[in-house]
Specification:
The chain has 278 residues and is α+β, with helices and mostly antiparallel strands. It folds into two domains: 142 residues; 122 residues, Glucose Permease (Domain IIA) (Distorted Sandwich), CATH 2.70.70.10. Helix content is 52%, strand content 24%. The chain contains two helices and twelve strands, in the order H-E-E-E-E-E-E-E-E-E-E-E-E-H. The strands form two sheets. Strands 1, 4, 5, 6, 7, 8, 9, 10, 11 and 12 form a ten-stranded antiparallel sheet that branches. The protein is rod-shaped.
């Protein structure tokens, strides 16, 4: 009985051990299968993730490519518009510049024509002025100067070219080619007309003498002077301007009273002063 019981116990024990072993093996197998399945699932998940990422990257690349293409098209369109606008702007600028150049050219031509007209007018005006000046100068030149008495005194001896007069100094009858005006010694002598001092000299017969050159070939001669320090040769003088003082230096009239001997010549020939003195 005990043996049988022991056998049964041993049998049961063995069976239990076998069952436990089988269970352990089953657990190991299950664990292994689980690991394999888990690894497969992990791999599949990784593959799925990788594929998803790849698909996302592919979509991103596609979208980027599309965006780039769209941007390129937009840029091309923008560049095209800019080129067209630049061409239009350039065309408009060239057109405006051409129009401005045409206007400026027209204005320049107008200014040139106006300048020519003004120059012509100015030239004509200058010519007219020159002609008038020449005419005035010619009139002044052709006009005989107006003479006045060189001193305030009365006549001592009148002009006498055709009739002989008696000379107290020479004690003979002779011609008298000027007018002798009574004057006190040192009385001032004035220019009979506008002119220029031609000469100041000591003449052997007429004494200290001043000659004034006038227009139209006239000369006035002032003789028997005391001094002539008021003027110089070449000086321009006006009618009535003081040129000298009365003296008694004319040797051929030394016997006469103190006076001024005055003559007028025209083209080198003596003329009657009475004709020109006014």
């Amino acid at each position: 009985m005990d043996r049988r019981q022991r056998r049964n116990e041993n049998y049961v024990s063995n069976i239990s051990m076998w069952v436990l072993g089988a269970v352990a093996v089953a657990l190991l197998i299950a664990f292994g299968v689980g690991i394999v399945i888990n690894n497969n699932q992990t791999r599949q998940a990784k593959r799925f993730t990788t594929n998803t990422q790849r698909i996302a990257e592919t979509n991103t690349m596609v979208n980027t490519s599309e965006n780039m293409q769209n941007n390129t098209q937009a840029v091309s369109i923008s560049i095209g518009r800019s080129v067209n606008e630049m061409q239009e702007s350039t065309t408009n600028t060239e057109k405006n510049n051409t129009e401005k150049m045409a206007v400026n050219t027209s204005k320049a031509e107008e200014t040139k024509n106006n300048t020519k007209t003004n120059t012509t007018k100015a030239t004509n005006t200058e010519k007219e002025t020159e002609v008038k000046q020449e005419e005035t100068k010619s009139e002044e030149t052709s006009k005989d100067p107006s003479f006045s008495k060189p001193v305030e005194g009365e006549k001592l001896q009148d002009y006498s070219k055709d009739n002989l007069v008696y000379s107290n100094t020479l004690e003979e009858w002779t011609t008298h080619l000027g007018i002798d005006y009574l004057a006190e010694k040192t009385d001032v002598v004035k220019a009979a007309a506008d002119g220029k001092i031609k000469s100041i000299k000591n003449d052997p017969r007429y004494g200290l003498t001043v000659v004034i050159e006038h227009s139209n070939g006239f000369e006035s001669i002032y003789s028997s002077l005391l001094t002539a320090e008021f003027v110089t040769i070449g000086e321009e003088v006006k009618k009535g301007q003081t040129i000298a003082t009365v003296g008694n230096t004319a040797t051929f009239e030394i016997a006469d009273e103190t006076h001024l001997h005055f003559e007028i010549k025209k083209d080198g020939e003596n003329v009657d002063p009475n004709i020109y003195i006014k």
